GNAT family N-acetyltransferase (Alsobacter sp. KACC 23698), 132 residues
Amino acid sequence: MARRVAEHGEADLPWTMAAETMAAAVSPARGYALADEAFALVEPARTGGVVLRTLVVARQARGRGLGRRMVEALAGILPGQDLLIAADTPEDLAPGFLARTGFERTAIAQFEMELDLSERVAAAFDEKKERS
């Protein structure tokens, strides 16, 4: 799978879809190929369903419906499962394809938090210095 993503994927794929990330994928992630021209990697979602991590169509085969056929094949292989696109997927990656194949935007419950460790490191250093 990783070799196919490296060979046929765009050079600027997000890190979550890059060949190096695909090479590190382990069970329960599963890779699928269609006619050796379309490739997908899926993994179970924590909330149920299956996350489509990557779907790549060989450059010479694009525009022939292989991406759609791969989604249909996944529906047959994974009956009754929802096929999800992760929230960290860039919105502009393939909006036309996603809409044409029936993907719909959903609300997400996601937030981002930050902890500035530099203050803690400085405080710990000062505390250690005082004890010396």
Observations:
- The radius of gyration is 20 Å.
